[in-house]
Structure formats: structure tokens, C-alpha cells
Specification:
Order of helices and strands: EEEEEHEEEEHEEHE
Number of helices: 3
Largest sheet: 6 strands, mixed
Helix content: 10-25%
Shape: globular
Structural class: alpha/beta
Amino acid sequence: MIGILTGSGTYALPGFEESGPAHPEEVFTPFGSTIVSSGSFAGTEVLHVARHRAGHELLPSQVTHQANIWALRERGARGVLAVTVCGALDPTLELVTLVVFDALHFLANRLPDGSICTLHTEPGAPGRGRWIFDKPFSAPLREALLEGAREAGHAVRDGGCYGHVDWPRFNTRTEIRMLQRAGGHRCLADRRPAFV
């Protein structure tokens, strides 16, 4: 089962057919609660979380990223497709082009309160330790996205660098220049944390 995380402007999936005990269901986690919808989307069983909740209830600094990931995992997701809207540093990239990322750039990976953005918070807990992010995105999921976009005739770019800047603020001009140097035109700037 795939978990789908959507962001600003996408609070429901078009054509999504809900199923399960509650529509949607509040799931409680060690990091707070989140709202999860379960059902069928494009012929596949999925779990859906709208980061900001219906009506953009949560500001970027209030989104419970750790709770969202925990809840999806607890409900059976074996992979997560997270979508975001980013500013492109490549002026030739047309609006609404789907970019299937293959690289990450972030210097700090922290939540709004300054704490490290990780699911592994307790000393000695399984999974806690150093992680190598050489290939941070799932190869089979990337290929499925690329193939699906091409079959649908939607503009898609194979590869891009997700450039992270701590939110809730947007990138400064200096940070944008830094991202251009780090990732060239492949870098797209955003302000959401990646998870370890």
C-alpha cells in the first residue's frame, strides 16, 4: 500500500473512493495526531494525508510531519509519495511540470521548534544512528511516476534536486544563489523537512 502526502491546495484526491472504518480517521501517534483517509485512487489502494488538512487548517510551521509519516506506516504504507509545489531555479522549466526528484540538498533538518526532524528520538532505539542518503528516493517508485506521467502525456522531468530551507519562511535571494551553485538548474527550492 502506498501513502500519499499532499500539500498546499490539494486537500482531497480527485476520484478518490474512501473505504475503511472512518472517513477520514484520526490516528494518534507519539508525535501527535493526524487525519488519514484510506481508499482507492487510480485503481490502487492508498492512504492519503493532506499536510495542511481541509481548508488549510494548519500553517506550514504547524504541520505534524513526524505524525504523518508514523500514521502512514502504522496503517500499512510501505512507501510514501509526497508531492510539493516548488520554485524552480531553471527558467526553462515550464509551469506544472512534474519533477521526479533524485537528489536532496539541505544543511539543517529541523522542525520549527529547532528539534531534529527524525522518527528516531530515543537513545538506543532501533533505527537510530547515521544514515547514508546517497539514493534518497525509491527507484521503483520514481520509475512508476515517470512511466505514468509519460503514458498520461504529462510533462515530466527525470531528476531534480530538492533544495530545502527551514520554514515557515521562504528562501532568501542568497539562499537561492547557494542552491543554484549546489545543484545547478536541477535544484528546486522549498522549505519542508526531509525525514531520517
